[in-house]
Design brief:
heterodimer; A: 713 residues; alpha+beta; Aldehyde Oxidoreductase, domain 4; 7-stranded mixed sheet; 29 strands; disordered N terminus; B: 157 residues; Ubiquitin-like (UB roll); DNA polymerase, domain 1; 2 domains; 5 helices
Chain lengths: 713, 157
């Protein structure tokens, strides 16, 4: 079994394409079988199992949360193994931070839009290793040179003699042969990669048979509903259990330091029992959105760390004939994935088992081991489909709670947080503030860019390898702009949220924080210079670069420059993130009162080699809808130490009747694949805000839109 | 209360408080987990089932309100031509991402097509905007409903 984890490449989570470090991927975990193979099995590595029955199973190291990892990664294996993708059965990898580590991230993490990027060589290598050995096994049987044979549609073929052997018949012989250290990937035309293969996970999702974590059922399982302390960082002082115990079907009340759980025979009784309780909570009521924003404003006045520097921004600024300054304040956001936080546990004195959908099942396993006081090898995490992740399920904050409840119950128990609990106890995209000062030449073009930002520094906790010299590299992602500006300074101030409030990762992470600021400022500069925002950007970018070409492509696709009715406007934005290069154009209409309707979104993306164009389109479309919800409604507020939002009425997301026409153009590319789950989200806010300005509306520097500017459909 | 509940053509004996939401009975007692919990307050539509063919939010429907009416869940959608047409369109159009909301989306769409075999965009807006999809599959849902409607009318399903 592989025992070392490859070091995470520092910018992989952020997506610097130069840092993809694919070479270290090949061979990792492939040199030896990760598991002892049983009789009639060929397990060349931890990802692949071929059986004498003909069954071919691929273990998917990434979580499946809708982003299509199961299908995309199965395609990579199918391509190299030379089997039709529909012959592959898939299973989700159990929690294991070593064997199933994403090579780009150094752990079993499904985030940073890195599933296909991480699997590009790893999973192809897994398939290629198996193919090589199967060919060798057949060649030996036929006493012919291996290089006179080839693999095709699940068989090894010896063309000269016309002989063929199905993989199933080679499983025993192959399992006895040595594995290649550096399996050779196919060169030339690819037949599965790049095709719009039908998703493998979806047939079960249209008939109710797909199993998410919340759907687990175990013999003797109880159902738990939980109330967490509503005061941030607060405690449970006490609770009278009697009203819950009086509810039919309720068996037990479990008190924890900062929560109370009601255990029942079914979820209905558990929730009714919970609602009957009047827990007494304690904690500081001092925190509010106003105090949190004030803390960020104060932090902006502190001296920060120099995160990036080019030339001398201060000197260039002082000498510049004109100056521009903008202050951006972005709100706190919740994920509100439709599947609320849930975790099913069975805790025994010498064994602990979890059933859940997690973006970090290996971390869930470690958290459970610690909470249960057991060694890691006495803890098993069974992975399930995730009903929406978006970064929330990169956290395991609820796992120790589930284990504590499981211990108290002494039987398998499924913990489900209600929607209110899920929102109030989210791992929030925390506030960030940015102040940008630009020095301009006589033509209104930037000669210096000074971007000072205050952000929470999530990576110090979440992935310390993505920090450097006190700077969270995610917080500053894209802060320096993709443009050619001779003098540049990015200054970083880290300001953590109040204790007890968990700041986490939200779809698009740093790029989503900074693209709205960078592209908003650049756009405003164009307006002030009285230049077309597209032309202004073209003057600041290498037109032959991938991003430069994407800028041209999205403008073409959107019909940039074509006449629009009065009160309408187009806004453009670009960013390089997650190894992809993306451009977006929003079209909006303002009614006479200034209320905004987003009528069309156009996107062009160069994401390198496209493994499955359908899934890429789905991800961009979904990323746009996700981002648009945040532009219109996204804001979580705190008052008297409590998060105020409780459900979808006050934590609104985009609905079908609010969804504009979306057009996605894919740029042909043979570069290694980039990420697609997140970049779509990053550009929605800048494109829409720029379109509002172009339509004659105000230049907005905060989100979400003021309620009066949201058109009620 | 002890009650008899008809789900997907089978009758179950249930003994729960009369205000118990149908959702938890279907999921935790009957054992059909295709119907999802999303909000508990009829705000997201993930729990949508049919009661005598009409779409209801099972998370706010007490068992006492169901009576002897027939409950149909996603697991039984394929028993109707419209249901099969929708499932096929959902796959053909590659609607689904995480899939958590799609049981509710499909049940809501099936009720729509039962009432309006040729829905307009406004009909679709009206019927489907109570169903949240956090993955953002709305555009494909709209296309798939129209396609399923055409196929169901043409008898292709």
């Amino acid at each position: 079994m592989a025992t070392s984890v490859p070091t995470a490449s520092r910018r992989a989570f952020l997506g610097g394409s130069a840092a993809l470090a694919g070479e270290l991927v090949i061979g990792f975990g492939l040199g030896a079988p990760a598991w002892a193979a049983g009789a009639g099995e060929f397990r060349p590595n931890a990802f692949l199992r071929l059986e004498a029955s003909g069954a071919i199973t691929v273990t998917i190291p990434s979580a499946e949360m809708g982003q299509g990892a199961v299908t995309g990664l199965a395609q990579l294996v199918a391509e190299e193994l030379e089997v039709p993708v529909e012959r592959i059965r898939t299973e989700l990898a159990p929690g294991d931070d070593v064997v199933y580590a994403n090579p780009l991230l150094g752990g079993q993490i499904t985030g940073g839009s890195a599933s296909v990027r991480g699997g590009w060589k790893q999973l192809r290598g897994a398939g290629a290793a198996a193919r090589t050995v199967l060919i060798e096994a057949a060649a030996r049987q036929w006493s012919v040179p291996a290089d006179s044979c080839r693999a095709e549609a699940g068989e090894v073929v010896h063309a000269a003699s016309g002989r063929r052997l199905a993989y199933a018949k080679l499983v025993d012989a192959a399992s006895k042969l040595p594995l290649p250290k550096e399996p050779k990937l196919k060169t030339g035309a690819l037949s599965v990669i790049g095709k719009p293969v039908a998703r493998l996970d979806t047939p079960a999702k249209v008939n109710g048979t797909a199993k998410f974590g919340i759907d687990v059922s175990l013999p003797g399982m109880r159902h738990a509903a939980v109330a967490n302390c509503p005061i941030i960082g607060g405690k449970l002082e006490g609770v009278d259990e009697a009203p819950a115990l009086a509810v039919k079907g309720v068996r037990q009340v479990v008190k924890l330091d900062n929560a109370v759980a009601v255990i029942a025979d079914h979820g209905g009784a558990a929730r009714k029992g919970l609602a009957a309780l009047s827990p007494r909570w304690s904690g500081s009521e001092a925190h509010s959105t106003a105090t949190m924003v004030a803390a960020y404003d104060a932090a902006m006045e502190r001296k920060g760390l120099v995160a990036e520097r080019k030339g001398d921004a201060a000197q260039a600024m002082a000498a510049a004939p004109a100056k521009f300054e903008a202050m951006y304040r972005l709100p706190m956001l919740a994920h509100v994935a439709l599947e609320p936080i849930n975790c099913t546990v069975s805790v025994k004195p010498d064994w602990c088992e979890l059933w859940l959908g997690s973006q970090v099942p290996g971390r869930a396993r470690r958290a459970a081991a610690e909470a249960a006081g057991l060694p890691l090898d006495k803890v098993k995490v069974n992975s399930f489909l995730i009903g929406g992740g978006f970064g929330r399920k990169l956290e395991v904050d609820f796992v120790p709670q589930a284990v504590a409840i499981g211990k108290a119950v002494g039987a398998p128990v499924k913990i489900i947080w209600g929607r209110d609990e899920d929102i109030r106890n989210d791992a929030f995209r925390y506030h960030n503030h940015s102040r940008v000062r630009v020095g301009l030449d006589a033509q209104g073009m930037p000669v210096s860019w000074d971007h000072k930002l205050v952000a929470p520094g999530v990576m110090f906790r979440f992935l310390p390898s993505f920090t450097k010299d006190g700077v969270d590299l995610d917080d500053i992602d894209d802060a320096a702009t993709p443009y050619t500006i001779p003098n540049m300074l990015v200054e970083y101030v880290r300001e953590e949220p109040p204790k007890g409030l968990l700041a986490g990762n939200w779809r698009g992470v740093g790029a989503t924080r900074n693209a709205v600021i960078v592209e908003g400022v650049i756009d405003e500069l164009a307006h002030r210079a009285k230049r077309d925002p597209l032309e202004y950007r073209r003057a600041l970018i290498d037109r032959s670069s991938r991003l430069g070409r994407v800028l041209d492509r999205v403008a073409d696709e959107a019909g940039w420059g074509r006449q629009l009715p009065p009160g309408h406007g187009r806004g453009i934005a670009i960013v390089s993130a997650f190894g992809s290069h993306i451009g977006m154009v929003a079209e909006v209409a303002l009614d006479p009162k200034g209320a905004v309707t987003v009528t069309k979104m156009t996107c062009a993306i160069d994401t390198g080699y496209v493994v499955n164009p359908t899934i890429v389109r789905q991800q961009i479309e979904g990323g746009i809808v996700f981002g648009l919800g945040a532009v219109l409604y996204g804001e979580v507020t705190v008052a008297r130490g409590r998060v105020q939002q409780t459900n979808y009425h006050d934590c609104r997301v985009l609905r079908l009747n609010e969804t504009p026409e979306i057009h996605v153009a894919l740029v042909d590319s043979t570069e290694d694949p980039g990420g697609v789950g997140e970049p779509g989200t990053a550009l929605v806010a800048p494109a829409v805000l720029n379109a509002i300005r172009a339509a004659g509306g105000p230049r907005l520097t905060s989100l979400p839109l003021p309620p009066a500017m949201v058109h009620r459909a | 209360m002890a009650a008899r509940l008809s789900v997907n053509g089978k009758t179950h004996s249930i003994d729960v408080d009369e205000d118990t939401p149908l959702l938890w009975i279907v999921r935790d007692i009957v054992g059909l987990t295709g119907t999802k919990f999303g909000c508990g307050a009829a705000q997201c539509g993930a729990c949508t089932v049919h009661i005598d063919g009409v779409a209801h939010r099972s998370c706010v429907t007490p068992i006492s309100a169901v009576g002897d009416r027939a409950v149909t869940t996603i697991e039984h959608l394929e028993s109707s031509p419209v249901g099969r047409a929708l499932q096929k369109a959902w796959l053909d159009e590659e609607v689904v991402q995480c899939g958590y909301c799609q049981s509710g989306q499909l049940m809501q769409a099936a009720a729509l097509l039962a009432a309006r075999p040729s829905p307009s965009d406004e009909d679709i807006d009206q019927a489907m905007s109570g169903n949240i999809c956090r993955c953002g599959t709305y555009g494909r849902i709209r296309t798939a409903i129209k396609k399923a409607a055409a196929n169901a009318r043409g008898g292709a399903a």
